[in-house]
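During the reporting period the student researcher (J.K.) took over the structure-prediction task from the postdoctoral fellow and processed the backlog of single-chain submissions. One of the processed entries is reproduced below for the supervisory committee.
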Amino acid sequence: MENIQVELKSAIADAHVAAEMTTINARENIDRAISKRIMCASLVEKAKQLHKQDIAGYLGDLMTSTQIRAYLSLHDAAGKRGAHHDKRQLL
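J.K. obtained the following structure tokens:
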């Protein structure tokens, strides 16, 4: 019985360390993803300034018009508040 208790405690310790590391990596990946989305949103906004009448045509081979609108909304939101901590920015 004592051997089972030791193995159980060891398994819990291993699972806890794995869960902690996965959580840390997930947080880092979310931060990185949001930063990349905000960067792309800035670039889409710049393209919109250069192609005012046909942004969907200009970017049509890269993304859908829904994605373009989402990036433009993200750019607007990022300029108004700290969008970096808002996970909804992942589109």
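The committee noted the following: The chain has one domain: 2-90.
J.K. will present the remaining backlog at the next meeting.
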